[in-house]
Amino acid sequence: MAGCPEALQAEGVIGEDRAGLPSTAGMEVFDLSAAGIAALGRRGVTVAGRPGEGNRVWLPREGSVGTLALTVARGGGHNTILLGPRDPRSRARISTSAQHGIVVLGGTSGAVTLTLSMGGERTLFVQGAEGSANALSCKLEGDGRRLLIGAGCMISTGVELRTSDSHAILDIAGGCQVNLPEDLVVGPHVWLGREVLVMKGVTIGRGSVIGARSVVTADVPDYALAAGVPARLLRQGVTWSRPALPDAARIAARIEEVAGR
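The structure corresponding to this sequence follows.
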């Protein structure tokens, strides 16, 4: 299947760890026919809008995927939505007008609340496995654009990721648009604080931390702390752990994990 984790790995979109994404071997595929929509409803997936042809939803044959509200705008067709096993508390709202778009949500034992708006041709959204998000809003626009979130990320409330500015800025003399959409990549095990905004064209490196209410407009390297408006680099050679006050053993284990990569 084009766009499945196996294909994404072969294309180099995800690495050898596959971002913790599920294999399609144990999955079931649903179309958006009346029968398919009814069957999805029994798994916690509701479908609205006027779907075009070729839309598919892939789910694990067993276990919870949380709840998903999928809205396909008129003409949105040949999209693939693939969910791994997800905590029953997880909630996702996906609105797409895309053609040949792909959405892959990795399995997680933590709760994820996600709102995704997607448009354009052949867009790709990946959320890696074993992450958490209190309230994440993503806007994926632009033909061929990608919004990728690595495995194990911790995302706070009011965080927004976007591949476009939503409206065009035009150069009067040149007669052209100067703010075209760009890809956005959040590496694995990144912590995004409350109300962080990450703009198009940005890559945030593995294990990094972005302080609350920051606006990220430039790349952040691996294992770094950045904060501010716009965000600036405050410290390098750092990472984070979920416990607020980790003991010495937890600190040593996390540093050993980082050093071994």
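Helices lie at 5-10, 34-41, 248-259.
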